[in-house]
Specification:
Oligomer: single chain
Largest sheet: 5 strands, parallel
Radius of gyration: 17 Å
Number of helices: 5
Strand order of the largest sheet: 2-1-3-4-5
Structural class: alpha/beta
Shape: globular
Helix content: 40-55%
Amino acid sequence: KKCRIAAIVGSGGQDGQLLAQQLHSSDYEVVGLRRATINIANSTEVAEFISGLHPKEVYFLAAHHHSSEEASGSEGALFHESFNVNASAVANFLDAIAVHSPSSRFFYASSCLVFPPAENGKQTEATAPCPESAYAISKAAGMLVCQYYRKAKGVFASTGILYNHESPLRGMRFVSKKIVSAAVR
């Protein structure tokens, strides 16, 4: 019987699917959350989920992206949705962990876009953030939320700064998949 439980927020994406496979092979019970599972922007739903599950680990891979090819809409709406998913929902999970499951470990997938373009080809965790889009600004805010809960509430909250990475699981809305698809056609 699997005794370690991991929750993957954003389990339907490329990274969520690959992580779920890895965790299953390491004898974890994996609970995947997709857009329709719970409303991650609703703190009550998140608290009920965490208090009912008491996961050993929570992987927050969900993100609100905006493609340059998507209808632009208003900048305000883009910022609002980006912050709802990339920062406020992070706070919902960390708060629920602090209150209902303090031994849970939390991982937040951030983005290299929180940094300015690398002039010398190198970026490290010590590189000063300089986000230039709603997505990047909200990802930087999510990192700060993790830092706050780690320092002020003692929650195990770590952040991974992810760079471009691809697999056959990448969705069709990503440019890399569109290029490969066009080349195959």
